[in-house]
Amino acid sequence: MKFIAEIELGNDAMQSRDDVLDSIRLALTRQSDYASMKAPLEPGDEATLNDGNGNTVGKWEVVV
Questions:
Q1: Terminal-to-terminal C-alpha distance of the chain
Q2: Alpha-carbon distance 17 to 44, whole Å?
Q3: What pLDDT does 4 receive?
Q4: What is the residue extent of each domain of the chain?
Q5: Is the CB of residue 31 less than 8 Å from the CB of residue 48?
Q6: Which residues neighbour 31 within 8 Å (Cβ) at sequence distance 6 or greater?
Q7: Which of 31, 33, 58, 64 could cross-link with 49 by S-S, CB 3.0 to 4.6 Å?
Q8: Sheet holding 2-7, edge to edge
Q9: Would you state the pLDDT for residue 17?
Q10: How many other C-beta atoms are found inside a 10 Å radius of the C-beta of residue 62?
């Protein structure tokens, strides 16, 4: 199984390592409660990645 993330770094809100980390952290915790954070990732799990301004800059997914 693989966790794949793809992020476009072309805009002003996605330039630093902190910007990338914040985007991934937000995507993994968005609309999640504590119990779901502890659940294992499974193939087919996916979500968009957004910058600090809410613009979509990529996605992540779990694949076999």
A1: 4
A2: 26
A3: 95
A4: 2-63
A5: no
A6: none
A7: 58
A8: 2-7, 56-63, 46-50
A9: 93
A10: 15
